[in-house]
Write a structure and sequence with these properties.
Layout lengths: L1 H15 L4 E9 L6 E5 L2 E5 L4 H16 L4 E7 L2 E10 L4 E5 L3 H12 L3 E5 L16 E3 L3 H4 L8 E5 L4 H11 L6 E4 L3 H13 L4 H4 L2 E2 L11 H16 L7
Parallel strand pairs: 6-7, 6-9, 7-8, 9-10, 10-11
Antiparallel strand pairs: 1-2, 1-5, 2-3, 4-5
Length: about 250
């Protein structure tokens, strides 16, 4: 009873804090029907399903399903027979972190919220990040991005860098690229991006992380106005949300 209470308390706490979490329950077959196990990224599992090998297999499946916001029944073979496990996932809400309170960001917040994203605008420059310009954002944070992002990014995070300023973009990328964030994109011309890659390589950022970066950001739709550029960005983000590149 105490173990079950701990599981449900932790589950409730994670959901309230909008932290990704999954609950696995044995619903049929060999083993302990009704046994539960709680899974979170980068956190030891709570509870068990009565078989160590089964626990490990279910943990792998649950964490993969969590990144896809997918729930369902999975069947596993154990020495006593087959076990059916219901895996229910509670992903954190899709959140777009927009670094740079520039004009493109105003339109991007509008599009992102319409498509169901929570929006967080980050900029240490008070002249840009004003409540009047971003009253429609869910959060407006006056801080350096590398101070905000470390504790906030997860597999349902989308990071968009719009500043063109290496003092803001580079530290943010050093946090975002090794993180579980689903999408990371940066504004800038091919020349600007080439210089960015040079700086990051010089700072020791590995190639596999650099390969995650969408830059120049957005799909090629020929947009020139801030609103059209925002359309190209949100289109690429939506493609990433659905596991696509949007390039073909």
């Amino acid at each position: 009873m105490g173990n079950a209470l701990t599981l449900f308390e932790t589950l409730t706490s994670c959901i309230a804090a909008e932290q990704p979490v999954a609950m696995a329950t044995v619903i049929q077959g060999a083993g302990r029907v009704g046994a539960k196990m709680l899974l979170r990224p980068d956190t030891p599992r709570l509870g068990d399903l009565g078989n160590a090998t089964l626990d490990e297999a279910v943990e792998r499946a649950a964490l993969a399903m969590l990144t896809r916001a997918e729930s369902g029944v999975r069947v596993y073979a154990v020495p006593e027979g087959e076990v059916q496990v219901f895996i229910e996932t509670y992903p954190s809400p899709p959140t777009m972190f927009i670094v740079g309170a520039v004009h493109i960001a105003i339109a991007l917040v509008t599009f992102a919220r319409t498509l169901g994203f929570r929006t967080v605008v980050i900029d240490a420059r008070g002249a840009f990040a004003t409540a009047e310009r971003f009253a429609h954002a869910d959060e407006l944070i006056h801080a350096w991005p590398d101070e905000v992002l470390p504790a906030r990014l997860n597999s349902n995070s989308y990071v968009v860098l719009l500043t063109h300023d290496p003092k803001l973009d580079d530290p943010a990328l050093k946090v975002a690229l090794p993180s579980p964030a689903r999408y990371i994109g940066a504004l800038g011309s091919p020349r600007t991006h080439a210089k960015r890659l040079e700086r990051l390589r010089a700072d020791g950022v590995p190639e596999e992380q650099l390969a995650r970066l969408h830059a120049p950001i957005g799909l090629k739709i020929g947009g020139a106005t801030p609103e059209e550029i925002a359309v190209s960005i949100i289109a690429e983000v939506v493609a990433a949300r659905h596991g696509l590149t949007g390039k073909t």
